[in-house]
Amino acid sequence: MSKSFYATLETPSQAIHAWKYTPWKKLHPTGKLNEVPDDFLEAEVAISMMDGSELPSGISLTKTISNGNTSFQHDDKAVAFLLAACDGDTWKLNIEENTLITSPVHVSIRASGHLAISHIQVQVGNNSDVEIIWSVSGEAGWFGLLREGIIGHGCHYHEGMEQALSPFSTILRAESWDIGRDSTTTSSLLSLGGELVRSDLRGTLGKGTTYKQFIASNGKGSRKDNHHLQLTHPVGNNHSELVIHSSCDDKSRAISTGKLTISKGADGSDASQIFKNLLLSEKARADSIPELEVLADDVSAAHGAASAPLDANQMFYLMSRGLDAEESEGLIVNGFLIAAFKNLPRDSISDWLKGRLTIHLDCNLLE
Amino acid sequence: MHSLMKGILAPHLENMLTSCVLSISDLHVSVEGTVVIKGLSLEIQKGEVHAIMGRNGAGKSTLANVLMGHPDYEITQGSIHFNGTPLDELEVFERARAGMFLSFQYPQAIPGVQVGTFLRKSVQAVRKDDCPNNRELRDEMKAAMKILGVDNSFLARYVNDGFSGGEKKRLEILQMLLLKPKLAMLDETDSGLDIDALRMVADGINSISDDAACLVITHYQRLLDHVKPSHVHVMIDGRIVKEGGSELAIQVEDKGYDWLEPTNA
Does A362 touch chain B (CB under 8 A)? Predict the structure, then answer.
């Protein structure tokens, strides 16, 4: 997508929920809102097996030049910016039909330099069963990540991502996922890095599909973490689940919006959205806005949002077991964030995420 | 200590000369302005099992929470010494590290924190000088879990999250066995337990009672069928109104509490 096309798009209005809290001008790397800088560095992307074995046949990561086909909405200013910044350079992670991989695949994305960008297309062939662990790291001042996935029919696709960029980075992430018929997909995100973070995710469910998105966000300092998710059930007899747990310390802020659309005729849809925020200081803030648009008759749709400070009774319980206040708080925060991944079906991903979170929180204690 | 010396020395010096683990003197406690405990005195020696019985609202759980240092309770008068140390000098976690343990009536769920992780951290914090290595701790856990009839999958679950009433109480006793307290306070640990679970919990309490002092808070006699108390105290309206041996618990079971009301006594 061209820079000139990007320039024709209007800046998103702050009247829209998804742009109310962090306007485009705050995210744009230069502040010249109709400009796409020329000096983006491509992030390094590498693939391996978590257990150190050779990459099995049926899975490949290749660099391509995009022909412009994309599942993203063209009129989205942020997406158009990212596509223009990529200038066609795209990584393609291809998983062939009927691929069954028992050990998790690891994809690392390392973003360096003043401005960094990466565009990754994930294509999972029908009847495949894979687990992918994504590590996003680096010291880029500004990083844009585009991921679009097409999950075939009858697949089991499970992924976990640790976003651990520099605490000073600005991160703009946009994702679009199309889940095929009778597939089960879970996506888990541990959002740890960046000072200003915005993630937009759009998911579209096929018939008989299960799609679950779990997010745990840890905020400290002046970190501001925005998550905006749109899940659409254009057809029925499917299930979506969104769980976001955000812990906010110091002056950090978490913003989560979830728009759930169940189209007319999509009967048998079952959807839920849960937002939980743990506020660890008086200046921390969290805003959670679930939004339901249900046009079908025979559906189950639920949502809930809650923000609370540390539970004094939990603190007392842990301290009565010999843990001091700092240790008790750390354990509660760790547990609160881990609990976002409670319904993850694959132990390998959840164990990895738990391990990464524990290391991150332990490092925080040492700072 | 010779009885003539009693009352001459300061309480903490008295405690040092005896095997007195817990000494409570003329304790008055308020919660949000309401006086709940109104002058309670009690001494517990090592190896003794004291049972406190009383109706709902008598102040039994308040006493347990005050001893453990719950911040909602205010001591307005009196003193508490644990192994000679004034308790008001100790934070909650310091009391635990000093050897105090409270088995809660309503144990808190800590979602996302696995039982195994929690136990390991807790043992490391409390048994600093006597902390087992990982292999020894695993063996201790296995032995304690066998007493309580729980299997290894227990360790992977989140602390009290989705636990049945019986499972919560077993986890409390499992912690007690691993933390090896000098003073174990058990607040209504028998409530919600079936007879088999009650026996297992009682076995757990009995296994530590020689080396520790125990304070068992209960409404009913049934736990005391399995855990033999050396002393029984009946609390009514924030005061101990009657003390005796294990026969007092049987009397209470037979006659209820009315006959012990100060106006009827």
Answer: no
Name the pTM for this structure: 0.91
| Residue A100 DSSP class | B
Residue whose tokens read 């719950």: B70
What is the pLDDT at residue B14?
Answer: 56
DSSP B259: G
- Per domain, the residue ranges of chain B are 3-260
Q: Interface pTM (ipTM) of the complex?
A: 0.92
Class of the CATH-defined domain B3-260: alpha beta
- Return all residues near B167 (Cβ < 8 A) that are at least 6 apart: B150, B154, B160
Domain housing A97: 3-366
Task: List the one residue out of B66, B100, B91 whose CA is nearest residue B176.
Answer: B100
Q: Which residue in this structure is represented by tokens 């888990």?
A: A188
Contacts with B121 from chain A: Cβ below 8 Å: 323, 327, 331
What is the three-class DSSP state of A210? strand
Instruction: Note the pLDDT tens digit of each residue in A267-304.
Output: 999 999 999 999 999 999 999 999 999 999 999 999 99
| Encoded amino acid at A180, one letter | G
Closest to A27 in 3D by CA, of A247, A283, A236, A224: A224
For A56-209, where are the E strands, in sequence order?
Answer: 59-65, 89-95, 105-111, 115-124, 129-138, 142-151, 156-163, 170-179, 184-191, 196-205
What whole-number distance in Å separates Cα of residue A119 and Cα of residue A142?
A: 15
Q: Which residues of A touch B110 (CB under 8 A)?
A: 314, 317-318, 331-332, 335
Interface contact flag, B118 A331, Cβ < 8 Å: yes
Token pair 């992430």 is found at A173
Query: Residue B97: which of A314, A322, A332 has the nearest Cβ?
Result: A322
Interface of B with A in 166-195 (CB under 8 A): 175, 179
Shortest CA distance to A297 belongs to which of A331, A334, A340, A267? Answer: A267
Q: Residues A221-252: pLDDT tens digits?
A: 999 999 999 999 999 999 999 999 999 999 99
Are B112 and A319 inside 8 Å of each other by CB? no
Number of domains in chain A: 1
CA dihedral (A323, A327, A329, A332) positive or negative? negative
Length of chain B: 265
Best to test chain A binding among B87, B93, B100, B176 (most A CBs inside 10 Å): B93
List pLDDT tens digits, range B234-256.
999 999 999 999 999 999 989 99
